[in-house]
Write a structure and sequence with these properties.
Elements: H1 2-15, H2 18-23, H3 26-29, H4 34-37, H5 46-73, H6 81-102, H7 110-134, H8 143-155
């Protein structure tokens, strides 16, 4: 695989004056090869691939719920503005933190960071979605806990 990528990069650079430009900067021209940048055969990437899958699933759910809110909740005159605002906030936070979940493998403790983001999304966005769709306020008490969990997830990057 590494050889294929190297061949593609070399072929592309033959057609463009990148090699001549890179020669002006010897440190860039002598940088490590692509093989050094790829994971070594003994490295188990499966936890990181699962985290990417979890992030993709969360993002897909965020987009789906956002589309639902955009087409159903906005057109319903019986839903008050407060519920629409809660839905917009949940949708925005859900999508932003799904992207943040994608970067959790770069944290020192990637599984803890991913877990914090996942729990935070569920505890913050879930009650907001529930309130927006049903009008029942009983689950809104969990929203601050979800917000704190999301803050801790962000702070876990500095550990």
């Amino acid at each position: 695989m590494a050889q294929v990528i190297t061949d593609v990069v070399n072929t592309v650079t033959d057609f463009f004056p990148i090699k001549r430009f890179a020669a002006l900067f010897p440190t860039v021209a002598s940088s490590p090869t692509i093989e050094a940048l790829l994971p070594q055969p003994g490295v188990d990437m499966s936890p990181f691939i699962r985290l990417a899958g979890l992030s993709g699933l969360s993002g897909a759910v965020a987009i789906s719920l956002g589309a639902y809110g955009s087409h159903v909740l906005r057109d319903d005159p019986s839903i008050e503005e407060r519920r629409r605002t809660a839905f917009d906030t949940a949708s925005r936070y859900h999508l932003i933190h799904s992207l943040a979940l994608l970067s959790s493998p770069s944290a020192r403790f990637p599984l803890a960071t991913a877990g914090l983001f996942s729990v935070g999304i569920l505890l913050f966005c879930g009650p907001c979605y529930h309130y927006s769709i049903t009008g029942v306020e009983s689950t809104r008490k969990y929203t601050p806990l979800g917000g704190v969990t999301l803050i801790v997830a962000w702070l876990s990057f500095i550990l």
